[in-house]
Amino acid sequence: DSRLSAAQPPGQLPPLRVVGQLGATYIIAEGPEGMYLLDQHAAHERVLFEQLIAERQAAQVAVQALLEPRPVELSVEAARLLTEYLDVLNGLGFQIEPFGGNTLLVRAVPALVRSADPALVLEDIGAALLSGDQPLGSTIEAVVARQVCKQAAVKAGQLLSQPEMEELVRALERCANPHTCPHGRPTMIHLSVELLAHQFGR
Q: What mean pLDDT, rounded, does the chain reach?
């Protein structure tokens, strides 16, 4: 039913009241126009992406220095691409330098991915750059930022407390583009009061 399709028109979200979590993956919320099911991973990606881009534009990206520099060996093609775009990576909070061959030396990462394995983050960015499978018109900076936020966002299957869900929903309400994640997937499905009434034969 097309009335069950993901809400994607531009515009801000109405104020939402968090009801609970479904399957440790979706946040159930109520709004003035019905019920919303939010994909917690996609929603968090959107929040982090807009935060990171805003920090980049203000030249205030939060950075986490590693206790010890970390050599990361990549495929030849991935290492070539990441070396080519070192300025972009470093502008988004990385501190990376060539380390010979297809190895890069990581001295710092964006604070968003402070808990992630730097090797996995760079491999993910390299794979995204090599695939070319990105939304039309994407800049290299946007591709890198999307992959950073994908790594940093809460995952499907992750239990969230009521305050954590409320904080995420409030942050999504403040986003310029709350209806899709940075990769273009919907962040939510809206079930209107009218649709629910129809489904229940009212």
A: 91
**Same domain (yes/no): 69, 147:** yes
Q: Which has more pLDDT, 134 or 102?
A: 102
Indicate if 148 and 160 belong to the same structural domain. Answer: no
- Residue 12's contacts (CB-CB under 8 Å, 6 or more residues apart) are 173, 178
**Residue 96 main-chain phi, psi, to 5 deg:** -130, 145
Query: 7 and 82, same structural domain?
Result: no
Residue type, 155: K
Q: Is residue 199 scored above 70 in pLDDT?
A: yes
Q: pTM score, two decimals?
A: 0.88
Contacts of 185 (CB under 8 A, 6+ apart): 39, 42
4 pLDDT more than 70: no
| Six-digit token string for 173 | 């309400």
How far apart, in whole angstroms, are the C-alpha atoms of residue 21 and residue 23? 7
Two structure tokens written together for 89: 């990576």
For 62, the token pair is: 């939060």
What pLDDT, on a 0 to 100 scale, did the predictor assign at position 84? Answer: 94
